[in-house]
Amino acid sequence: MKLVCKTERLVIRQLTLKDAGFVIRLYNHESFIRNIADKNIRTIEDAEDYLTNGPLASYETYGFGLNLVSLRKSGTPVGICGVLKRPELDSPDLGYAFLPEYCNQGYATEASIGVLQHAVKTLSLDTVLAVTFPSNKGSNRVLTKVGFELKGTIELYGLENNLYEYRA
Model pTM? Predict the structure, then answer.
């Protein structure tokens, strides 16, 4: 398990197959399904397949991907945050999701800043995009707070999304 960065309250590290149980819990929460998508991850096997073909493959191919975010003091997993490369977008994009009990506490902002600093310094990325539904007020607010600029909208997977850009 590779450390990506530490912030004041968080540890951000690459996901492993051992995180399958947490992925099931996070990805099946109503807010994840509503604001991101239903990834149809219901079993440990589903989660391990997702991790193998998603984040773990992304680390191997691009050197980055979604990461586990945990509390620094307790080690409790609270969400995911990372940079991913989608074929539909010209540049890598920031993605994050947190369990509802850890929302509205600044964790998404703190993790996003840490991941963006890592992306600029370690991965030499000068442009990072982000997409979110216009109705997802919390994510729109986080992206603006960490320095993204709203560039317009984009249709992604058949749905209208706000398109944001961060330039180092």
Answer: 0.95
Q: Would you list the DSSP string of 50-116? A: HHHHTHHHHHHHHS--EEEEEETTT--EEEEEEEE--TTSSS-EEEEEE-GGGTTSSHHHHHHHHHH
Structure tokens at 128: 């990072």
The continuous run of DSSP H or E covering 49 comes out as: helix 44-53
The token duo for 10 is 């968080």
CA distance 2 to 12: 9
Residue count of the chain: 168
Q: How confident is the model at residue 149 (pLDDT cuts 50, 70, 90)?
A: very high
> Can you read off the two tokens belonging to residue 8?
């004041």
Q: What is the chain's mean pLDDT, rounded?
A: 96
Residue 64 — φ and ψ, nearest 5°?
-150, 170
Burial class (CB in 10 A: 0-12, 13-18, 19+), 130: buried
pLDDT tens column, 85-130: 999 999 999 999 999 999 999 999 999 999 999 999 999 999 999 9
